[in-house]
Amino acid sequence: GNLYSYDGKTLIQYAIGKKDTSFTIPSSVTSIGSYAFEGCRSLTSIVLPSSVTSIGDDAFSYCSSLTSVTFEEGSKLTSIGREAFADCSSLTSIVLPSSVTSIGMGAFAWCSSLTSITFEEGSKLTSIDDYAFSNCSSLTSINFNGTMAQWKAISKGTNWNYNMPADYKVYCTDGTLDKNDNQVG
Hints:
Elements: E1 3-4, E2 10-13, E3 22-24, E4 31-32, E5 45-48, E6 54-55, E7 68-71, E8 79-80, E9 93-96, E10 102-103, E11 116-119, E12 127-128, E13 141-144, H1 148-153, E14 155-156, E15 169-172, E16 175-177, E17 183-184
Parallel strand pairs: 2-4, 3-5, 4-6, 5-7, 6-8, 8-10, 9-11, 10-12, 11-13, 12-14, 13-15
Antiparallel strand pairs: 1-2, 15-16, 16-17
């Protein structure tokens, strides 16, 4: 099966060649290692327990059949690594827990079917790195459950939204912003 660290807190490698379509990560796991699920094309859904605090670089990259990522209620997740979900071309929406503070470079790049991103209420997000959502060519809405001032205060890397549709909107609790953070409507 799967390879875990000696203490069982890090999922190092999902079983190579495993054909399961869904997987629930054990609640003993606190981190998903870099490249742990990379290229797992049979996986369509993943459930991350509230115990997970970090997702490593390229952890789920090239999981082209992945349509559902569920974060259990009360997630303690603080960081999403570089290209963690890059090229998950079947992923259509993602709801990120309020505990996420940073989104790594290219974390959701090339998720061509991604239409919406939602940040839970009480978001602690402080940074979105370079190219985090680049080439998300179907993205129409970012639902930020905070104020426009809070959204604008988030440090955003160079081209964090590179090659996204020109008409996507950021919906905040007190109004709507266009791709250039200008208030609309």
